Amino acid sequence: MKTSFNKYGRKDGKDLCEIVLENDHGMIVKVLNYGATLEKVLLNDENMILSLNSPADYSQERNYLGGTVGRIAGRVRKGQWRHGLETHQLPINDGENHIHGGIGTDTEVWDFKPSCSENSARVDLTLLDPDGHNDYPGNLKIHVKYELDNDNTLHYSINAVSDQLTIFNPVNHVYFTLGEKDNIKDLLLQMNADYYLPVDHSGMPDRGMEKVAGTAFDFRKTKRVGDALEADDPQIKDRDGMDHPFILNGNQPGAVLSSEDHKVTVNTDAPSLIIYTGNGFDHTGKYTADFGQYAGITFEAQIPPAEDSDLGRITLLPNEEFERNVSWKFE
């Protein structure tokens, strides 16, 4: 097992670094302290995830690739959080809604500490998100860990504590490709999810859970991702692909994505995986010009977005510890 890091720049008076984790089988994981970002996953020198051309590109244009997105990943309807008789207003930055924490944690430079043992190579990253940043209450101390083992599994965890009542629902926003160069339509997907959440025109859930049975969203048995993307389904057509929460039924793994040559198995203690198929990539943007529609697929492990301003499920009490765990096993 090996760890190392390279400085590649400066931002906000802090060093920007690329941290390298390598196991005894030659699998390499690259992490940036900018946004606690998963930059590359190299299996036999082939990258399994969607990546920009260089580490320096990530801070030039916000695109969420591999970032630790928070304080809340996803949307909050009208940016409103109702608790008791009070309504707290977050910035509106996605139509009439709030999305991805405003200028969120994926745009911050984190402190980091690499370490290594006989069984794992890891990096711990920490960030203090101050009270009032992006109009979120509470000084929030966040700890993210990436740990690579000799089973070719990358473990990712987020822990956080706030000194005030606040809301928190972060996610790692990595896009998987399994080495596919153009799009992920021919990848095969299986998920342990019997229900999904339909969404409205703004991407917010609006009618509760619906069964996946008989819909394009049924991945209980392995099927081609493109079969869903090409389906004549109003939910698919309205979002130009998948942009939906899948409610996990508790059976592990949560999801298995495979190609002819590779496979990633996703396990998590989160109640849902939000699937987004890169619907908005359209070869624009200075740093994402190489990416077309469906260039990658996410499995965002989190609590699904709420329909209204009752955000009780993602409310943190003062000094209550938040913990989220995800693992990705590559073959």
From TrEMBL:
It catalyses: alpha-maltose = beta-maltose. CDD domains: galactose_mutarotase_like. Pathway: Carbohydrate metabolism; hexose metabolism. GO terms for cellular component: cytoplasm. GO terms for molecular function: aldose 1-epimerase activity; carbohydrate binding; maltose epimerase activity. It comes from the Bacteria. GO terms for biological process: galactose catabolic process via UDP-galactose, Leloir pathway; glucose metabolic process. Its EC number is 5.1.3.21. Beta-D-galactose binds at H173, V174, Y175, D243. Keywords: Carbohydrate metabolism, Isomerase. InterPro entries: Aldose_1-epimerase, Aldose_1/G6P_1-epimerase, Gal_mutarotase_sf_dom, Galactose_mutarotase-like, GH-type_carb-bd. Belongs to the aldose epimerase family. Catalyzes the interconversion of alpha and beta anomers of maltose. This is Maltose epimerase. It comes from Lactobacillus helveticus CIRM-BIA 951.
